[in-house]
């Protein structure tokens, strides 16, 4: 791999982020955030609500429509010990959307806070008209049952669960987070973290964009807690987290119809999804994978696959649409561990709208791989001009490097 790509040092992605620049709360209203126009230098400070004025009128804007589940559960033992359970993924192997429909019981891979205080026994969470029970089935697994077996697990979580705010937000979740840590276009349940670039969009902004000529498409990447894990040690040794992606047949058609428009991706998760879709088509083209509606992208696939030669974006997405058609218009789904680094071409996007990311994060490395400007200069400008950082912070707009 090192012969194909020169791996950067993690130190290249370090910057000083003062604690008071991390946004603990969102802007008063969606669209009230600032937007850093980093399409070129000199950088400009803008209001997010004016985004329609900054992008081409014929843009196709692609969103991640994943919906955040209330993944954080707080129990208390009779001894007084507080136990936090953070849901990661169903042990059944089911898609999270399917798991959420289960009644009677559901078993999950989890993170357990204060685990040493709970090695066995039944935990109970008493709610107004419901009791949720938790039984530890392994070091990192818990089975949940509840007193009303006719209720779905989704209904149980809506009463018992808390919004899984990122670890760098040093406060408990509040009622307002139920709405504000969710995009207005969130649909498909499956994430434990929000695709935060989408949090800035209001219904009014979406209407204004439509009226200006912008068109929309939606994909889904179920954002996992691994998105917050910084890179430690050597970049080449980092174990990239796996996340699940979905795209419907209708949205594949939409992408092909709008293939000649400039594509703007809202968020790094959308970029990761679309590059993974392209790589799936490229692997099939080079006969490195079967022609299947099931996607399986590993973190360094792009290093070996793109080296064999690229194909036009139009060819790739027409191939993906054909695969969906031959599978009863099923769309595509699967997993990706794709790690996007500077030095390999990004094919699918022309513009990227994203928030400001943590130092030494894989998301910051993705921005560096994409942007036509120096990310460090852009971030320095933002720090000097009162931009707010991370999930509830402000946004920036980048153009693809040539």
Short description:
The protein has about 400 residues and is an alpha/beta fold. It has helices at about 95-100, 155-160, 175-180, 205-210, 250-255, 270-285, 300-305, 315-325, 360-370, 375-385, and strands at about 35-40, 45, 60-65, 65-70, 70-75, 80-90, 105-115, 120-125, 130-140, 140-145, 190, 215-220, 245, 265, 295, 330-335, 350-355, 395-400. It has a ten-stranded mixed β-sheet with strand order 2-1-18-17-14-3-12-13-16-15.
Structure description:
There is one protein chain. The protein has 402 residues and is of the alpha/beta class. It has 2 domains: 10-67 and 181-399, QueA-like (3-Layer(aba) Sandwich); 71-160, no CATH class. Helix content is 22%, strand content 25%. It contains 10 helices and 18 strands. The chain has helices at 96-99, 153-160, 177-180, 203-212, 249-257, 268-285, 301-305, 313-325, 362-370, 375-384, and strands spanning 34-38, 44-47, 60-64, 66-68, 72-76, 82-90, 105-113, 122-126, 131-138, 141-146, 188-191, 215-222, 243-247, 263-266, 294-297, 332-336, 351-355, 395-399. The protein has a 10-stranded mixed β-sheet. The protein has a 6-stranded antiparallel β-sheet with strand order 5-6-7-10-9-8, covered by helices on one side. The model has no long low-confidence stretch (mean pLDDT 94).
